[in-house]
Amino acid sequence: MQALGRQLVCSSNSRAGVSIIHKVTKQSSQKIQHHQQNSRVFSFPHRRAFSSTSSVSGGLLHHEWVIGGNVINDTNSANSRDDTNTVVFLHGLLGSGKNLRTLSKKITERNPNLSALLLDLRGHGSTSTNASFSSTTEPPHTFESCANDIINTLQNLNLVGSERSPVAVVGHSFGGRLALQYAHQTIIHNQNRLSSDGGTLQQIPHPPLHTWILDSVPGQAHASVHDVIQAVSSVDLPIPSKKHLQTVLTKEKGIDPMIAAWMTTNLRKSSCNKGFTYTFDLDVAMSVLNEFGKQDFLGMIRDVGKIHHLDYDKESMEKEKKNGRINLVMAGKNPSWTEDLKKELELIQSDLVSKEESFLQMYKLPEAGHWVHVDDLEGLIQVIEKGGLH
């Protein structure tokens, strides 16, 4: 379904009209060969149903490459390089891949052995505005579908097998949830492929060695997220100017000025060249927002961690000591990280200890708000490099 805002963009004084009726609570390097080359099958508890198969059905996502601190316009040339390890970057809700450009530029500039692949998730950025991409991302707009889009896009780019699969995935907020979903689903897909074809794993991405989750709080989305979507969906379209949107959001809708300013970066010229419309699809955004509370975030962390309790030999284990981990970065100024939630994560952390080190690592950036990659960019990069991604 096309977004209401897109349907009405050339109508006078039209509204995107998405109604939010539910109330939420405040729950808040050298090439490294992947573990799956040992042809082991991973078994998870059957507390969660999955329809994933070895044949991945997903859409294609718009993407851009960042190598050596620079955006690379020749995507074919960038994709054909074998001298760097790929790191996938996933943006937050209502955003796009370009939101993580600065972070990816800094990381690849400091670590020339890494290349960054920035994706526009379904219903967002150029994946939403370019029909050749948006036509491939059909409903349902679930987390599993979003992760399958990532897997399918990597297959299309031939980023599969033990030598070319991305070594890491880094996601902020909604993107962090999908980073975890992706890590989990790649394990499932590899498990199914091992079971069905005797161990041929060259045509699908292997699970990432590093999963970085940037200030993604388990549970339902905070009520303020619904407030923002309700506000932007009620703005008359087309929007006369970026300044107009910022004024309406702050003075009429009560949206934080920083968020309102950021929203102006998510505009594009309307199809009739009269003002602006959004670069995201509000229908898709609402659908995935409603999926937040359905994701078994903590259960998936446990599942992904179990892969590392396989019986590796000592040499292999030492090599993998700082790889394959789930790394959770918390914003010190985000009140959604409650003491109860942190204690629950610490219990999981203690359960996933192998060789005296847990495969769930948690970091806190004391002076950062939710936008950790903006509020404390240098601190975040130091944490990521300390965690083994370099």
TrEMBL record:
**Tagged with keyword Disulfide bond:** no
Q: Which organism is it from?
A: Ditylum brightwellii
Q: Which domain of life is it from?
A: Eukaryota
PANTHER family xref list = 2-SUCCINYL-6-HYDROXY-2,4-CYCLOHEXADIENE-1-CARBOXYLATE SYNTHASE, AB HYDROLASE-1 DOMAIN-CONTAINING PROTEIN
Q: Which family does it belong to?
A: Belongs to the peptidase S33 family.
Give GO MF terms, alphabetically: hydrolase activity
Gene3D superfamilies to which the protein is assigned, alphabetical: alpha/beta hydrolase
InterPro entries tied to this protein: AB_hydrolase_1, AB_hydrolase_fold, Serine_prot/Carboxylest_S33
Which keywords label this protein? Hydrolase
What range(s) does the AB hydrolase-1 domain occupy? 87-379
In Swiss-Prot or TrEMBL terms, this protein is called AB hydrolase-1 domain-containing protein
